[in-house]
Amino acid sequence: MMLRLAIKSLISRRFSALVCISMVALSAIALLSVDTLYRGTQSAFGRSVQGIDLIVGAPTGDINLLLFSAFQVGAPSRELSMATFTRWQQNPNIARAVPLMLGDSHKGFRVIGTDANMFEHIQATTGHKAFAQGHAFKHVFEVTLGFEVARKLDYHLGDELILSHGLGHHSFQQHKARTFTVTGILAATGTPIDKTLQVSLDGIEAIHWPPATLATLAAQPNIGENPALKPDSLAAFYLTLSNKVRTFQVQRSINQSEDELAQAILPGVAITQLWSMLDWIEAALLGLGSLAALIAIIGVGSTLLTLLDKRMDEFQLLQTLGAKKRFICTLLAVETATLVTLGMLAGVALTVMLERTLLGIAQNHWGLYWPLDINWLWLGGAILTLPLISGLLLAGVGAWRLRN
User: Fold this and answer.
1) Closest CA to 330 of 401, 398, 387, 395
2) Which domain holds residue 92?
3) d(Cα 386, Cα 344) in Å, to the nearest integer?
């Protein structure tokens, strides 16, 4: 009865009601978008190291090792010997070892020297085929491309390209003696691997040979057939263990090894350390979202108070006709709670529609993806409590005005 009366009252003032609902919806969109963006970014970071139990490199600090090996940011201070990688690759506790050689690039995109285990790792962690087109490199002078590289540079299977020495857009030397042929394009993963090129370890070693020596190689030598192309060192490598229980044991063995100084980190722990250093970003985002929501709430409050002033004659007429103050205050509370509830529900629906649309565009065009991770528990509590609080506050103001 009271709800139906409140709805009819709002319909009679539909323009003002729509303004209030829009303000509440905008405040909900601001807060939800900030929260979802931050939580989605954290999820994307975690997905980048999914399936990696340990990252091993020369002692350089947990975060630096994580950044240059998993996110292609920065560079190693020094490298590990190939003997260390081979020793741990052959360890019975290791299910998969992925080598990483860095230091070269192509038109601003990093080149990773690796082997077939990289593509097995991608397939195992994404749950779908690693390649959208083509296949992994089989010869020394073949290259595979990440999704973003192929899209932005408009490369296709069979295209030839030249690698450069140096990282980023600053290339110190063009390796023009041999070109690389594109044999495969990776499917989008939404991780930094989409913005890299992958060649064999032999290929990385070959392009750093003197041109005269390089000319003695066949046009497309098979990977592994020339022992002289085997590199002596690596930037880092990933380890996936067959038994996760032994992770800490293997980590301790690597860190305490007397054969060569090395550092093994747990990528999940390193990401937690990284986010703890960036707490101010979360605070800034939440602060901006809260400020936008506060401005909207103040706007709603001022609009409702203005409407309340205009409706005092209506309330006094109702009192003259026999309506009690409690009835009027209850009606006012129900109207306000209905406005806030409708506004929050509209904000949630619009946020979900907007972010699903934007995430679909980002995934199709830029290879970015993160789940639409809304904190439904927090949201449900807000939908239940905010309308009640706002209704009681405005009812209290109305009761005070009627008394005076």
Assistant:
1) 395
2) 54-265
3) 9
User: Is residue 61, in this structure, part of any structural domain at all?
Assistant: yes
Q: How many CA atoms lie within 13 A of 327 on its CB side?
A: 11
Report the SS3 class of residue 226.
Answer: coil
**Of the candidates 58, 91, 86, 89, which has an alpha carbon nearest to the alpha carbon of residue 232?**
86
- Longest CA–CA span in the chain (Å) reads 106
Say if 133 falls within a structural domain: yes
The per-residue pLDDT for range 128-156, each reduced to its tens digit, is 889 999 999 999 999 999 998 998 899 99
Q: Determine contact, residues 262/254, Cβ cutoff 8 Å.
A: yes
CA-CA distance, 109 to 168, in Å (whole number)? Answer: 6
β strands within 194-235, DSSP E: 196-200, 233-234
Per residue in 254-304, pLDDT (tens digit) is 999 888 899 999 998 888 888 777 777 767 777 776 777 677 667 666 666
Q: Is 55 in contact with 265 (CB distance < 8 Å)?
A: yes
CA distances 356 to 122, 227, 353, 372, Å, are: 25, 51, 5, 7
Domain boundary pick from 209, 237, 265: 265
Measured distance between the N- and C-terminal CA atoms of the chain, rounded to whole angstroms? 28
Neighbours of 55 (CB within 10 A): 24
Q: How many residues does the chain have?
A: 404
DSSP states of 334-384 as a string?
A: HHHHHHHHHHHHHHHHHHHHHHHHHHHHHHHHH---------HHHHHHHHH
Residues 387 and 355 in one domain: yes
Q: Last residue of some domain: 212, 235, 265? A: 265
How many domains is the chain partitioned into structurally? 2
Q: 141 and 122, same structural domain? A: yes
Cα atoms in the Cβ-side hemisphere of radius 13 Å centred on 107:
12
Residue 80 neighbours by CB distance under 10 Å: 24
Nearest to 122, CA basis, from 144, 102, 140: 144
Q: What is the pTM of this model?
A: 0.74
For residues 339 and 21, the answer to whether their CB atoms sit within 8 Å is: yes
Eight-class DSSP state of 221: P
The tokens for 171 are 């290339």
